[in-house]
Design a protein that fits this description.
Two copies of one chain form a homodimer. Chain A has strands at residues 7-10, 29-34, 50-56, 66-67, 78-79, 92-103, 106-110, 119-125. In chain A, β6 and β7 (106-110) form a beta hairpin. With 138 residues, chain A is mainly β.
Chain lengths: 138, 138
């Protein structure tokens, strides 16, 4: 199981502490700079579409089995897998973003709270139906 | 970037060819057997909840830059990242499942089309709002 870094996040966020918690209203802009070798693999993406971005969070804290959800000590400890904490057994992030523009190997996206230099492992289209609980799907 | 296998899929599917394409209606049952060491990290999951399961697809085909969506040759070639093909630069799967039951380190789930023995890398709760395009969120 060998991971390939296919791209890098270009972001105004320098430190993890600056990154807002994931949420629908952040709209944080960032650019995913794909390794030019993979550029043909982007064909078919179009602006306005929603994408999943999977990154490797390099700068996570030491792993804990249980955490306070959203880092809020007033909330009871919960198993880390049952939260979206980045400090997971494998620091794989999963973020739904909106593709603002695609130019060559550069994807400008809205909603990606990742620090400058974060390695990108995968990009997938959001697909209605399979990416929605059935009772939420239209 | 070193991946830890945190669990294994126990499934009636022996071969990738038997696996149905991802879709909302498959409802394929499978069990995720977590390494017992990680069992405390599951605390807080409850039956009925929707989860993301991230696996490593070991038995993918040689990687192609462009593929026919859903393996259908009548559909024009598209960049592989713009599809959900498992034959990606990093064979990371992303599947939304429903948790049927959690007993100890065993999660019975509905909607996971993965073959017996597939390594599991991460499990995350599906979170309304952040995992939905804003225009689809309630």
């Amino acid at each position: 199981m060998e991971l390939k870094v296919i791209g890098t996040v270009r972001s105004a966020l320098a430190e993890p502490m600056e990154a807002p918690k994931q949420g629908p209203e952040t709209g944080q802009r960032a650019v995913i700079e794909l390794d030019p070798a993979w550029q043909p693999a982007l064909e078919g993406f179009r602006a306005g579409q929603h994408l999943w971005v999977l990154c490797w969070f390099r700068r996570t804290k030491p792993f804990k089995m249980r955490v306070h959800p959203r880092g809020d000590p007033s909330r009871p400890l919960r198993g880390v897998l049952a939260t979206r904490s980045p400090n997971r057994p494998n620091p794989l992030s999963l973020t739904l973003v909106r593709l603002v523009s695609l130019e060559g190997n550069r994807l400008q996206v809205a909603g990606l709270e990742a620090v400058e230099g974060t390695p990108v492992l995968d990009i997938k289209p959001w697909v209605p139906g399979i990416d929605q609980p059935q009772d939420e799907a239209k």
